[in-house]
């Protein structure tokens, strides 16, 4: 299936097609890209009387882009903290930063601040203003954030933890207020949609309300800033187990160790299908490793003892970020002074534990049993809980073990499913407006196996379906069966062949 979450400049734009997350009550964004449910999980409210919020007005010339914009933000914070010799630069660099007053949009019902730790919300932006014009496309509008990280700095300023929140997490978004005073009603949907509908303060409120962690500041950074920062560092070393060619990410890398800059660095952290298993969670892990390398280089002795290098780095970062107006020069100076002893080795990267969202295998939900101890540890600044051992995974049934009853499917659908070795019967039935996979008692794993062949289709239990059986009910619009990709002798998996 095509995915445009790693598209290069306009001439490199690739095809994209993903479905909306089901059972979402997110408000409808009116001036987002035509097919951008994959980005924001946007859905009409179920209550027709509820006013539909409108997205923030966006200037023309914006296009979706998933870059690792937060890399620069974390590196900037750490290098500012570690480089006590650069405090004198703050006043000069402060003029580069765009500030936004957000306190009035956060409301009064917020988590209590339990200690002197500092929690900074880091957001990516796909703005196409200024230097980002190279990625302009006429068919896409609206600004989005696809990367959300909470940077927790301990009360003693001796360690930090960066917590990544997957963009396609299904969460309850609270009621939010836009800068113009317009209200956005609460809804259930993808995490990254909060930014699209009501800006950074809405994402701030969502993270606070779902984690019960008090957030002190936010930093927003665009993807062009990421490229500037990596270039200011002289590039960052990576290692890829095999040659990578991904035109959607504008990426062409040789195998082995190499130093990447600019577009190559951005493509490396954005590519979804060129490396790994194609999942967003795998990409987050790769981004975290890259981030660790950036922080390590940004806080190296050669950087911190060279005022010219430090200034170039900080100048590149501050030209690319926006913050809340409380993160001012005084706050930065105080933070830098207290963090002077922090090193790259005391910065950790973790991801919120997740599990498959049962109503859509293309989405995730937080594993509350594992996520709550993590959130509690961040809130109280305790030691993070040890990772839970991975539960044994039940083996997915083979297609030849799955009985599929196709209702209203075309002959081609039946043929394609049989080509994938499913045991298929077919019949006509009442017309349905949505294609669904329905399963009887004891057939949930069989339904999941069918979902692999028919991605993006909702999977639901149905007592009318015979036990041990799965039904594929096809709407008039039809459904596509994805052909099986055969295994090839000698194939390489990224996580099996490290450099």
From TrEMBL:
Pfam families: LytR_C, LytR_cpsA_psr. Residues 1-65 are annotated as: Disordered. Belongs to the LytR/CpsA/Psr (LCP) family. It comes from the Bacteria. The chain crosses the membrane at residues 70-90. This is LytR family transcriptional regulator. PANTHER family: POLYISOPRENYL-TEICHOIC ACID--PEPTIDOGLYCAN TEICHOIC ACID TRANSFERASE TAGU. Residues 144-299 form the Cell envelope-related transcriptional attenuator domain. InterPro entries: LytR/CpsA/Psr_C (IPR027381), LytR/CpsA/Psr_CW_biosynth (IPR050922), LytR_CpsA_psr (IPR004474). It comes from Actinoallomurus iriomotensis. Residues 8-31, 40-55 have a biased composition (Basic and acidic residues). Keywords: Membrane, Transmembrane, Transmembrane helix. Residues 401-474 form the LytR/CpsA/Psr regulator C-terminal domain.
